[in-house]
Model the fold of this input.
Amino acid sequence: MDPASQDINLNSPNKGLVVDQSDSLSDVPVEGAVGNSANPLPPGLTEEEAEELRTELTKVEEEINTLRQVLSAKERHATDLKRKLGLSPLNELRQNLTKSWQDVQTSNAYVRTTEKLGEWNERVTSSDLYLSASATLDDITHSEAYKKTQETLSQAGQKTSAALTTVGTAITRRLGDMRNSATFKSFEDKMGNLKIDVTPQV
Done:
């Protein structure tokens, strides 16, 4: 396959297929282009210089197309190698995120921000207001009122749990009694007979 005739547009549905080069973009006149019959040559540019520039432009465009084709082939080869190595896009993304996070953590901005937050934390925790609030909180947790409230709530929780257990046991016992009753047994027998009548005999 001739690389010059291969479609290398990565978004093209014809990517990698041979395309007709007769409609090359270099053949399309561009507004303001050198040598366009509708536009005269820029001042100070001879026809010979314009032809030389057009030739150079054509060569550069061909080189660009060649480089795109080589890049596309290299990307396909890299994808094949990654697939053979078992590197999925998800693993690659995970590695990229890990590396990016490590780069962020070692960046000067992150280090300075961490240091600044540490300084602020030190200032706050050593301030009189913080120490006073901390001491007040400590006093509250050791006060008699706090201890009594904590004991009361604990006892209430235990009593509630015991009550719910008792209710659950009573309901279970009542359902067992109901199942053993004559009415339920009669109902169960009727349902069994109905099932036998509805089920086709094989």
